[in-house]
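Onboarding guide, step 5: your first structure request.
Type a short instruction followed by the sequence, for example:

Predict the 3D structure of this protein.
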Amino acid sequence: MIELKVEKFKPEYAGKLNFYVSAVDSQVRTDTDGPTIGILICKSKSDIKVEYSLRDLTKPIGVSEYQITENLPEQFRSSIPSIEQIEAELGGWDDE
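The system replies with structure tokens like these:
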């Protein structure tokens, strides 16, 4: 379970992600699956706020921050689908 936030980390984000991970564990995960892992990616984070927010949670959750760059490095361009490819893949969902 990955959640991307376009603003800095807030403690309530950890609680929401914990809820989502619990829901996936209860509704989607099977006995043959490993534990659901929650990954929260924010624009920025305070290590102290993250530590206190995750301290008593028992689910495997991690928090990281991202950096925005103007250009995607050449080595990654072929690994990531284009907008057109994503739209084509999702286009058939309206028919269901």
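Each response can be followed by summary notes, for example: The chain has a mean pLDDT of 86.
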